[in-house]
Amino acid sequence: MFKQVLVAQWQTSKLAVGLLTLLSFCIPLLAVLYGGDLAGAGRERVGDWLVAADRVAQLLPFIALLVGLLLGTLAWSADLAGRHVYALSLPLPRGLYVSMRFGAGALFATIPGAAMGLSSGIATLAVALPPGIHAYPLELALRFWLASLTVFAIIFAIAGASRRGQVITISVIGAAVTLDVVFLLFGVDYSVTAEALLLLTNWPGPLSLLTGRWALFDV
Amino acid sequence: MIAHAIETHDMCYRPGPGFELRDVSLKVRQGAIYGFLGPNGAGKTTTIQLLLGLLRPQGGSISVLGRQVPRELPRILGATGYIPERPHLYPFLTVAQAIRFHGAFYRGFDWAYAEELRRGFDLRGEAKLARLSKGEMGKLHVLLVLAQRPELLVLDEPTDGLDPVVRRDVLSALLDFCSQGAATVFISSHLVHELERICDWIGVLDRGRLVAELPMHAFKNGIKRIRLDHPPSLIGDTPFLLVSRQQSALDQVWVVRGWQPTMVQWFQGAGAEVKEIVDLDLEEGFVELLRGARTPTS
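The joint structure predicted for all components is written out below.
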């Protein structure tokens, strides 16, 4: 059964997986594009190089976000189009079906992560690092993969929710935005959405993996 | 062996204002070909979705193949072949992939029979579902549910929009299958003539209410249009069920159910003269039944 779910889900996800894998593979290589041999380079040049490599690496959380967003949405796209009638009429517990859809999506989300890990390894080998600078290809790839999976899980849950669940989610967001507007009109210096975003993006918030510095090279 | 493949008691469902399924009590005998008739918007698809656990009823109980819905849903669905009103298969799959996908979920899926039907229906394995015609898609749905070798077939307007040739192919395949075993068929349609040929039992749903449920022969033979002179103005106990009564310029026309030839005497006793008794076909009977259900006679 899982194999068939995997095959079917691949049909809807393959284009996104291909493009995201290509992007994930290219970014670590771009980060070291003009690095070359830094073994004998001066402190200033190493510093400049590190800043440039960091800038490129800052694209990685956005790619991880994109991986989660696209694969989470695409995991349900076929069932959504048919109003879940096919899925609901299949003879298996609903939890098992959801697990299979989730498993297939999570598996696809590892492909860009693996590509990122591979190209990080290649990028690390491509530069002769000066003393005191270290490469973290595995750590970065793991973080990328976990961030993709986290976003995927959130989007998968929202996209696969019942209409009632989706209405509740949208209503909560709408209420928060409305409260912000009301606070703004009455001159109250407080934002519900900003607080919620802080909670989500600061540790132990689930999206904290996406924030902070993403560096392939560091001291 | 269970007596009824489908049994509901006072099933109620109200998705919102404007429509309500009220106290629907269905009894579909094991092995029957049960035609579920009703005009568009009567609640046929909603009833089917409730039977298969796609929707949750707000009242009453549902039992399918002797098991309770929704508690034993996976086992019920494992023995049920379902063709929904709108095609629901994934359009990006090929015919061969759709068969493999569907078959993987059913323990008793008959792969050889599926292949035999695919060839019989002239469906190319490599054809994408998105490119299939409506008729080909209809055939594929039938192929998939028949290859499941189900105990119960639930078909929601399976031939709607199909051309007569495809419709005949689809109905022949269904009847062939039914003749092989003891499958129960629950088929919903508003194409009355189609059901007249294949069903041995019918249920009529109108505006969310089950207005009739009876054997096909009783429905076909028992519904009459009677033209009367000097009809009785007051109707007390009648030996038949008065479905509707209409006054024309010359006489009065009654439509009755449960008619027997000896019942002419009841009219004579009431001082009326029976001018004509006409057998109604299923479609006419269906229309009269709905008319009667909507405007109750005094």
